[in-house]
Amino acid sequence: MKIETRDILYLHLQASERFVISYGMDFREFAGSLNQGLRNILLIEHKYEDGEYNLNTLMDYVLQEDLPNLLKQNVSEYIDFCWTDFAEESALNELNGQEIAELLYLGHCKGHLKPPFYRQLQNHYVYLAHDDGWFNKVYYRSMDTFFEMLGNLIPGKLDLLKREKSWLGGLRRKAEYGVIPPAGLKELTPLLTEGAAISFRNMRLSRTKIEIPIWILGDYVNMDDMLDEYSNIVRSEQPAAHFVFNRKTREWTLEK
């Protein structure tokens, strides 16, 4: 199965509310970039037909051992694809009506009534996508997890774009481009807080290094508008920063 990846990664970080809005990262890329991998997931909005059904929440769920089948699906065709992870199957029966209502609100409105992390579920993520990869909003229990994920995602996307391999093939060869250390990625926080595009489309390759430019675009939820601004700004402004991969040392740096 051929897996494609978008060549622009837009990220808008809201650290105080622990979520990131993005364009250019899909479910398969997200799952493949997590250091710990995904656990069981409770499906809030979806069209997946092979999940199991929980009578308390009236929602479908997918156990960890069945995730490979879900990862093969083109979930962007579901229109809305929203879920949260959970530790134990029995926890789904412990959610009360208010908590179930909050989860439904998350899926319907792509926003939260209360911080969307629950003692029963022990969840680490809430993943809210419309046309998966086009508009994604992901809540993180710990923002450190976001930076760890991003440190795998960027080299993984580079591998896909340069080698035209499947995502899993990209993961197997991830060592070629290493991993970007979270400490270096956190230097990017001021740019991501404003809303920034990491552009593989405009990257420069030489014998010694790869340079991936980053432009500040601003705060967008309409990704058509974001792409229009991207097209304008790359013609008129220099990048705010670059990710640079040194081919000899296999190390990443952020240059501003």
Automatic annotation (TrEMBL):
Origin superkingdom: Bacteria
Protein's UniProt name: Oxalate:formate antiporter
